[in-house]
């Protein structure tokens, strides 16, 4: 059964009636621009063909009941629980958080019954969290006829995750999941929050992106993330700029000369050069030179591995194996210390590259990776 049918079947079985509609939101992957978001910089994510589907109908009692195929037990809550971050916990907090964010924004959110099914792997860095938030948001906006233009959805979904769930994420995930467009990547300026659709016609170029789920255990990811973030903030202060975004590549050497220790210099070099790589990738894509972006992807990986030091052996193995098997470029995607790798490959070679990565993993005794070939797909939609 496909994911939309599973959501419908789950709804029928749970509630004994037909849903009023179904809403689908994709996972996302970041093509390039890592650890640039909190430095006021640039990112370039795109929406995946894997989706989370929410089947929903209004509930006359004004309460919310949500069931997910990931859990046997449905969770029910009312306005009192939704209005107090922390009252609903576990996975249903992502749903209660959306109700909370909408109510806090002044909307009269309709009570609803919801059933969730998903093809987005959970906790792999492909943003199953933004997918469930965005699908629920779209469902509630439609069911309630709420006056909320789509430009405002990413911020509200982010608030649900930051302030209700308590996960400190940036605006990238929700922007990609909500605003993504088939055949395009989303160029996002994290300082101004301006977005631009950039043609990313893999299909036309007979290319594909292979996504490898490294299955590496997340080792100290939270602490290391916080440390990188602090390091960047201190470096910006030392350089007298608001954020590392304000250091241009042309001024990098001069900036590095003003920094005391080698580790800080390498961290700064990653962020400054990574921002430039995003801009260079956008320029190549605008010119239709999709394949030529490969070396920028690989340079991004080398920078994360050697300067920002956020990769792990499984991730480096996947990148090296993909490149050896003929990928045009490959890099870790996401915050690091695990998560996924993406590789730009000939569409016809995707299976062979995936097999080469799986073999390299086996040789080193790593848990077998997950592999998946993707094209940039559309953001949140109503299915009917
Ligand atoms: P990622 O976004 O990379 O997949 P996160 O840790 O940010 O990882 O979000 C994963 C969490 O989101 C899950 O642990 C769960 O609480 C919630 N979630 C995501 N998708 C679903 C789903 N289909 N059903 C229930 N909860 C989900
Ligand atoms: Mg997430």
UniProtKB/TrEMBL annotation:
One of its GO terms (cellular component) is cytosol. It is found in: Cytoplasm. Pathway: Carbohydrate metabolism; galactose metabolism. One of its GO terms (biological process) is galactose metabolic process. The keyword Cell membrane does not apply. Substrate binds at residues 34-37, 225. This is Galactokinase. Catalyzes the transfer of the gamma-phosphate of ATP to D-galactose to form alpha-D-galactose-1-phosphate (Gal-1-P). The active site is at 173 (proton acceptor). Residues 283-362 form the GHMP kinase C-terminal domain. Keywords: ATP-binding, Carbohydrate metabolism, Cytoplasm, Galactose metabolism, Kinase, Magnesium, Metal-binding, Nucleotide-binding, Transferase. Its EC number is 2.7.1.6. It catalyses: alpha-D-galactose + ATP = alpha-D-galactose 1-phosphate + ADP + H(+). Belongs to the GHMP kinase family. GalK subfamily.
């Amino acid at each position: 059964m496909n994911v939309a049918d599973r959501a419908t079947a789950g709804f029928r079985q749970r509630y004994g009636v037909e849903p009023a509609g179904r809403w689908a939101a994709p996972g996302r992957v970041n093509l390039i621009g890592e650890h640039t978001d909190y430095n006021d910089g640039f990112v370039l994510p795109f929406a995946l063909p894997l989706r989370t589907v929410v089947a929903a109908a209004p509930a006359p009692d004004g309460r919310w009941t949500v069931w997910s195929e990931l859990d046997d037990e449905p969770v029910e809550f009312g306005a009192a629980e939704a209005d107090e971050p922390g009252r609903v916990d576990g996975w249903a907090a992502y749903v209660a958080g959306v109700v909370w964010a909408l109510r806090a924004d002044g909307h009269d959110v309709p009570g609803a019954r919801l059933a969730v099914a998903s093809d987005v792997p959970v906790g792999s860095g492909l943003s199953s969290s933004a997918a469930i938030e965005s699908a629920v948001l779209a469902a509630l906006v439609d069911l309630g006829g709420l006056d909320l233009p789509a430009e405002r959805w990413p911020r509200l979904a982010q608030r649900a995750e930051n302030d209700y769930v308590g996960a400190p994420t940036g605006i990238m995930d929700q922007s990609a999941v909500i605003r993504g467009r088939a055949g395009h990547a989303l160029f996002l300026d994290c300082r101004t929050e301006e977005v631009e659709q950039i043609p990313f016609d893999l299909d036309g170029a007979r290319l594909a992106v292979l996504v490898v789920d490294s299955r590496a255990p997340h080792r100290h990811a939270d602490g290391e993330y916080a440390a990188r973030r602090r390091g960047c903030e201190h470096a910006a202060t030392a350089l007298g700029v608001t954020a590392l975004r304000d250091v241009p590549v042309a001024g990098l050497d001069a900036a590095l000369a003003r920094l005391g220790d080698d580790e800080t210099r390498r961290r700064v070099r990653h962020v400054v050069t990574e921002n430039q790589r995003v801009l260079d990738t956008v320029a190549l894509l605008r010119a239709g030179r999709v394949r030529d972006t490969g070396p920028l992807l690989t340079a991004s990986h080398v920078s994360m591995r050697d300067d920002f030091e956020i990769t792990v052996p499984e991730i480096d193995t996947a990148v090296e194996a993909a490149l050896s098997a003929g990928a045009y470029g490959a890099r870790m995607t996401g915050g690091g210390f695990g998560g996924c790798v993406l590789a730009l490959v000939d569409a016809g070679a995707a299976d062979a590259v995936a097999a080469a990565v799986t073999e390299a993993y086996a040789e080193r005794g790593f848990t077998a990776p997950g592999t998946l070939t993707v094209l940039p797909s559309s953001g949140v939609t109503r299915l009917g």
